[in-house]
């Protein structure tokens, strides 16, 4: 079964609220066997919208990433991100 990547591009507008989201999201991702590959590191914007916070996490499968997003723990954390950031988030299945 192919692994999957959770990819987020974020512009934080309220750092205090977003920090609360990040703490809860980190725990939810770990609970679903997600492992961070990139998180708010240096980057070079080549095309599209520039959002300074970029996060990539790997999950054992697309289903596990999906389950994480819709989990009670992640949805509780997500409430802190509402109004605290502009975000794009997707899950993408990796090639075998």
TrEMBL record:
Cited Pfam families: DUF1330 (PF07045)
Listed name of the protein: Uncharacterized protein (DUF1330 family)
Lineage: Bacteria, Pseudomonadati, Pseudomonadota, Alphaproteobacteria, Rhodobacterales
Origin: domain of life: Bacteria
Alphabetical list of InterPro entries matching this protein: Dimeric_a/b-barrel, DUF1330
Cross-referenced Gene3D superfamilies: 3.30.70.100
Residue span, DUF1330 domain: 3-94
């Amino acid at each position: 079964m192919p692994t999957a990547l959770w990819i987020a591009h974020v512009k934080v507008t309220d750092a205090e609220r977003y920090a609360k989201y990040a703490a809860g999201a980190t725990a939810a991702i770990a609970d679903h066997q997600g492992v961070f590959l990139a998180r708010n590191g240096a980057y070079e914007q080549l095309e599209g919208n520039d959002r300074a916070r970029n996060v990539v996490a790997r999950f054992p499968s697309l289903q596990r990433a999906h389950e994480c997003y819709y989990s009670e723990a992640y949805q509780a954390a997500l409430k802190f991100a509402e109004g605290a950031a502009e975000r794009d988030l997707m899950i993408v299945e990796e090639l075998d």
